[in-house]
Amino acid sequence: MRIIVNGEPRELPDGASVAQAVAAVTAAASGVAAALNDEVVRRSAWEATTLREADRLEVLTAVQGG
Amino acid sequence: MTETTDDTAADALVIAGEEIGSRLIMGTGGAPSMQVLREALTASGTALTTVAMRRVDPSARGSVLDVLTGCGIRVLPNTAGCFTAGEAVLTAKMAREALGTNWVKLEVIADERTLLPDPIELVEAAEQLVDDGFVVLPYTNDDPVLAHRLEQLGCAAVMPLGSPIGSGLGIRNPHNIELIVERAGVPVILDAGLGTASDAALAMELGCDAVLLATAVTRAQSPARMAAAMRHAVEAGRLARLAGRIPKRRYAQASSPFEGLASS
């Protein structure tokens, strides 16, 4: 299954969760948020939320700015 | 009650019912290293500091969040880089989830050349975020009408620019800032464009409740030294505002008596 994580296509096993996709791009245990197709997925729901082909996932964290 | 001199504890900045320990709000953008940033933040005495939200970078070294946590500074996420209300609202929601705060510095810009706020998108985003329970601190144009509209729709402060972000041009329209201050029922935070300490002092003398700055410190030749200068400038400007300046006069007014002069 191919999904788009932070703008880059990525192969994940069918039925992969948001938690698995996030873990593929960061090891950070906190300070990270995920949005699936422009909707925030609460961290408590990452494990239970499964991805589908062509889903778009954004994974953000705080950086220097402002 | 005795007149206070420099009792800043009795003159705290309060936003949305919460006391903020300094009237100098810092940004973290532009610092050449985390070490320089840490030294500058410490020298500034700030208690509230902005960060931006971006895609995670697996190669990033050090986290700005670790610096803020280490300094005991409260984090204020911004929506920098957003051009539409939709982008800004999603970014604010992600910041709330990532950082555990419902405070947001709302920034919706019109173009990359000026980085000026897009007032239409800004109002739209502010309405949505206020309705969603955010404490919204909007970065706005130095437009008294727009600032008032933002306050009316429930923003917890208004943050007019002095001049474009990072320009160091100072406060280009002090009269508008005074008009915003006169009418505001929420804190007015001068945000963007300050270049040096006198700009920060002027903002406070005009009646602003706080200033927010980053570039003037982080890109100064000695960021920590400039941060200390800004801290003193904000305190000096605030005291001068509270003290009440003398009216400007057209001609001199002698400060020494004319009586009792020696005659020759």
TrEMBL record, chain A:
Which Pfam families does the entry mention? ThiS (PF02597)
Membrane-spanning intervals of the chain: none
Where does the source fall among the domains of life?
A: Bacteria
Q: Which InterPro entries match?
A: Beta-grasp_dom_sf, Mopterin_synth/thiamin_S_b, Thi_S, ThiS/MoaD-like
| UniProt xrefs under NCBIfam families | thiS
Official protein name in the record: Sulfur carrier protein ThiS
From TrEMBL, chain B:
Q: Name one Pfam family in it.
A: ThiG
Report the InterPro entries cross-referenced here: Aldolase_TIM, Thiazole_synthase_ThiG, ThiG
Catalytic residues?
Answer: 105 (schiff-base intermediate with dxp)
Q: In which pathway does it act?
A: Cofactor biosynthesis; thiamine diphosphate biosynthesis
- Cell membrane keyword on record: no
Q: Which domain of life is it from?
A: Bacteria
Q: Can you name this protein? A: Thiazole synthase
Organism source for this protein? Actinomadura violacea
**Encoding gene per record:** thiG
